[in-house]
Structures are given as C-alpha cells and as structure tokens.
C-alpha cells in the first residue's frame, strides 16, 4: 500500500506485529471469494435464498436511461443521518440541471417512531417544492432512494428487512416504505407527489453512471455503509416475477450481511468482535462492519486504546476523548494517512485534538500505520466483492459506478481497490471505476424519468 511504503521502515516492530491481524493473505481473500460467490448464487435461487446471508434482492429495474428522457423529476435520497431532496431537469444531449437541499434526520427521529421519520421527510419534501416554486397542484413524479435492506415486490413496493447504519425506527421493519412515505405526503394535503420507483443507493449509482457510460454493470457504495448491485441475467434471478422478455434485471446484493453465518470468523479481529457486540445490530452486517465509514474509525480507536494500554503507544497515556466510543471519526484516517510532512504536523494536530499531547514521532508513525492497515483491509474486502461480481458477469469490459464518502475522500482507497481487484479477477476482464458525479439522487430521478418515458 502506498501509505505503508512511506512509513513502514520506521514503524515500531511490536506495532507491526500487532497489526498483522489486519493483513489478509491472498489465500484468505480467495477463500472469501468462494464463500461470497456461493452466497450470491444461493441468494438468487428460489429454493436456496432463505439459507443465504446475501439476499440478492430483485430491484425490478430493467431499463436504463437511453438519452431520450426529458422533463423535471424529483428525487429523495435517504441513506444516513442526512438525506437529500433533488430537482432534476433533463434536457437535450444527455445534459441535466439540478437543484438540491440537504436535510438532517435528528438522532431522536432515527431511533423514534417510523411515522415521525416519514412525517419529517414529507415536511422537508413539501418545503423543497415550495421553495423551488414548483406547481403544488400538478402531480410531481419522484424516485425514492432508500439505502437500507429492502425486499422489493415491484418497482414501487419495497418492504424493509432491517435497519442498519444506526437507525432503529419502530413500526417500519416488514412494512412497505413507499406506502409509508405516500401516507405521510397525503396526510399533509399541500403537495402532490407520486412515488414512481424505489431503489437503493447502489442501484442509483449504477443508473447515474449508466447515463453517461452504457457499459456500467455494477454500482458500488463505500461510505457510511457498504453494498453493491449488478446487472444479472433474468434467467438467473429465480425470484424475479416480472417481464421475462427483457434479458436483464438489476440485483441488489446486500453483501453487507455476508459472513453473518460465520464465514468471516477466520478473519475477524478482536476489535471487529467488540464493535459488533456493542452495535445496534449485533451479529448482523459483519462484512459491512469491517469495511464502511461508520466503523473504520472506531476499529482504529479500539486498536490504539488496546496498544496504549499495553504500553506500546504514547507511553501508556490515553485521553478521555480517545477512551470514548465514536470519538475517532473515519475522516481522521484520511487526514492521518495523507500526512507525509517531516514532522507529521497533521497527525500531531489531530492527536492533540483527541487529547494526546506531544506524541513522539514514532507514535505518529505507528498511528499512521494502524490507520493504513485498517483502511487497506477495507479496500481489499471491497476487492473481494467486486472480483466475485466481475467474474460472474464475465464481460470483457465493465464500468463500475462508485460513490460514498470513504471512496471519495480517502487518499489511497481507489488505488488499493484497483490493484487488488486486478489480482483476483479472470485475466480476460478489464474494468474501470467511475465516480458517480451526483450519485444515487440523480439515479433516483432517472428511474422516475425512465418510468415516465415508458
């Protein structure tokens, strides 16, 4: 890894030895690929889906944009503590105009009643419509990106399987979230919005990238959570109940749950187990918890605390901040790994803000190395998933649409994924990673446009 090369020569031997638990050998990655490939194939099967942790939900998205779509479309993108409302106007030559606002889901709503969540979303939608002077008497088509595990039974019907990413709203699991949103909008009586399609953020990312690159066959998110979708042959998707005259359908893998049955146990560290046990959903989403931005910083913090308690960092000194769960944000890792200054100025400043004053240069190097090991493991696990999907699609070239804060902002993440994925895929396959410019929000609007077009 690029960051490791810059610092590994001066990393404390003891720290390097302790961090070996994060370094996955190629044979371990290949074993995980075999397990994940089996789970995806089982997830697609009518008789085997129930036994697979990777559920491979059918999205019912079969048509991608073809460039003829025109008009104004709303999009709602809900996938974490913030959500976006967008107005997309599709014009000629594949161009579009966009306005958007970001709204916050307060923590009390994230863990409150489901009706409160959807009432809050409906209020924000209504405010957005009015602020942008849209006609409140005309029905506005909306694409809804809902980035939580969803079992769809149609393009406009999707039942929540379970909450992830810190959400725990009551009365929503098992319910049709489209209907809950429609009920909240209808209850207001001040706007007319028709939810014409629901999708998750990976599907939105795939569609937004396919708008510019028709070879896009995979959508990947590495942010607060981690998931991927891909284009599958209809005959392989045995649970699909729809138009079989069209050859393909987008499948939402929900690979974050990979390993919930123990298939990751051989590569889990004590820190992974501690995070899982302390989470809102213990035993669930274990693959995601090893990869995503919601957890990576906490893995690093736990490692730092453990090593300091063993007198292997900071001469055994720890601060209240460093001892507090959630205080070491994943964004700190990007700052720390990017620091190549002679005196490690950025690392010193970051540690000082965490209450660790006057760390030695060796401490700075060691903290950087811990961050590198955790982020590299994350990227390599993403490579495992991408390699399985690329080998399964087996096209000579596949464009992969990618979004998410970890992918966007980590200095080496993209390069780490590319290098390791190339080592794991069939030699005849080429691929590119394309950053999704406007992400899953644009994808949701494009789904609404495609539905309106058809």
TrEMBL record:
GO CC terms, sorted: cytosol; mitochondrion
**What single Pfam family name could you report for this chain, choosing any that match?**
Hexokinase_1
List its EC numbers: 2.7.1.-
**Domain Hexokinase C-terminal as annotated: residue spans:** 217-450
Q: Where is the Hexokinase N-terminal domain?
A: 17-210
MF (Gene Ontology): ATP binding; D-glucose binding; fructokinase activity; glucokinase activity
The record ties this protein, via InterPro entries, to:
ATPase_NBD, Hexokinase, Hexokinase_BS, Hexokinase_C, Hexokinase_N
* Any one biological process term the GO annotation gives: glycolytic process
CDD domains per UniProt: ASKHA_NBD_HK_meta
Extract the SUPFAM superfamilies matched here.
Actin-like ATPase domain
Q: Which UniProt keywords apply?
A: ATP-binding, Glycolysis, Kinase, Nucleotide-binding, Transferase
Superkingdom is: Eukaryota
Catalyzed reaction equations: D-fructose + ATP = D-fructose 6-phosphate + ADP + H(+); D-mannose + ATP = D-mannose 6-phosphate + ADP + H(+); D-glucose + ATP = D-glucose 6-phosphate + ADP + H(+); a D-hexose + ATP = a D-hexose 6-phosphate + ADP + H(+)
Q: Quote the pathway field.
A: Carbohydrate metabolism; hexose metabolism; Carbohydrate degradation; glycolysis; D-glyceraldehyde 3-phosphate and glycerone phosphate from D-glucose: step 1/4
Q: Which family is annotated? A: Belongs to the hexokinase family.
Described by its record, this protein's role is as follows:
Catalyzes the phosphorylation of various hexoses to hexose 6-phosphate.
What is the protein named? Phosphotransferase
> Which species expresses this protein natively?
Macrosiphum euphorbiae
